[in-house]
Amino acid sequence: MRQLEEFEHLEDKKISTTSATFGLLRKELIENLGMNRAKSFLLRYGWNLGQAHAKDVLKAGGTIKEMLEKAGELHFQTGQISNLISDRSVEMDAHGNLLSITATGEWVDSFEVEEHVKNHGLSACPVCHTLTGFGSGFTSTIIKRRVFIKEVECRGKGDSTCTFEMRLEEDWDEPGMQEEIGLYEKSRFIDELNGTYEQVVEHKNHIERAAAFHDTLTSKLSDGDSIEEIIGTIHDALNVPVSIEDLNFEPRVYRGLDEIEYQHFSDDFRAAINKTKSGKILPSTHTGTFIIRGKVHNRLVSPIIVQKKAIGYITFFYLDKDAELENETMFIRRAAVSAALLFLNEKTSLEAVENIKAYFFEQLLLKQYTSVPSMIYRGYYMGVDLKEPFYIATLKCSSEHLDVSKVEFLEQVIQSVSRYLEMQSYKILITEYEGHILMLLPKVERLRYMIENILKHLHQEHRHAEFQVALSSESDSIETIEESLEESRVALRLNSEERIASFEDVSIIGSLINSKNMLSIRRLARKELEPIFELKDHKRDELLKTLYVFLMNGGNLQQSISDLSLSMSGLMYRITRIEKLLGKELRNPAVAYELLLMLDALKILGDIDV
Hints:
Helix content is 52%, strand content 16%. The chain is an alpha+beta fold and 610 residues long. Helix 2 (35-60) packs across helix 3 (64-77) and helix 2 (35-60) runs parallel beside helix 5.
């Protein structure tokens, strides 16, 4: 049991003061020491005041209960309150030893409330610290056991009364009360100053380290270092593994970990991070620096923001599960800003380069060049080897809420794709062409997986739009780029429901049409059907649809009447006119097969809509 503070060696003289004077002292204490330290001082002041009065009561003698009854009178005599209302329970054994003591009560007209409200206004917590200390010190001295009072309601914080509870020290088990009891203990102000000084020094060293780190990154940026070199600098300066990842938390570059370690930690991270019910990570929810605590490692993650948009994440890895990651947020935020500046510079350069590449791509599509070797040579400067196999892809945008045909929107999508693929170090050609976005995609392993990630990225950045990619067959010559473009368009028309439509997956008739025979098939089909194509638009479309439906139904009149919503005479009139225009007998199987093949070919090529 801790011993009560004793002052037997001092001559204890009583002095008097006014409540206003005490209020001024109290005000200065709070303003100069802070509320918590002032509270500790006032509790100890009250304790010692109550202890001094208790010693006088002990000299007069009496039973414990009789001596305790004098507390209210002493409160009143010292001007602290106008009245004390209390209900005390004291239990003694047969030998007069105290077994337990509890009390509840109310201080009426507490002088501390008046002074506190006058100088500071209403408080968030009780303010009768001197009264609390006085009651605790007085009772503890009388019964020679440590007793503590807690104020539970206080007019100083807006309550209607100032009420308290009293218990033996060992009977208090609330965490907040244990902290308050600690305020009664002696503390040397110099020790607090030393502790504060050590914290200031530690904080100063932390700031200096962060400033040096920032200066190092700034120097590297001004030297034109790449993102790989910047990440290496961060790893060397902080001695912590670090990575740059895209919005899907797929890595672009990392240092301090080998491939196996990175994958191990990545699996741990994905198991720990919050996901949707379907298991998808929602990067848009991670807009600030955050901490993920896994089973085998912890990581500190901060978004890389370029022009108010997150383009990826920078991550610090910690194998020590007890590391205080909050202290490292200053470093990762500076690192994120440095990465953002680097990517902003790259973005500005990229936009200029992309404009040149877009113009170059359009030249290829329009065949506005003097020789193939010269274009291949220029392609090297664009980062694309046109001697290697490639695909032409059409990126279709659709939305119920946005006008996706606007050039501004298409440019935003092009920038999104360009930034994403730049993070993946995958060089392509991309441009807006005839209302669609076209891409020349060099052949790489897992091309479909790459396209799927592009679509995921676009969905995250443009949530009110839907995107579809239609892919041509593989081409090995830029001289066939026009045919590859047509293949991509065919794939888009025939696979309108697929997110990734491939020309190689179209119907049998579609597969018979390729870049080498596409133009000849179109010419042949239009020549055979020329008498109908020469009609006015309304009549042309009407007869083409009738012919297509009739042939698709195998010449079945009843089914054709139903599909076209015509009468028998109306259908027969149209069939007769078609046969007269084409000079062919539609019920001839060979003729019917040939005509249906031509119509299917024109439908695939987008020349007709039947």
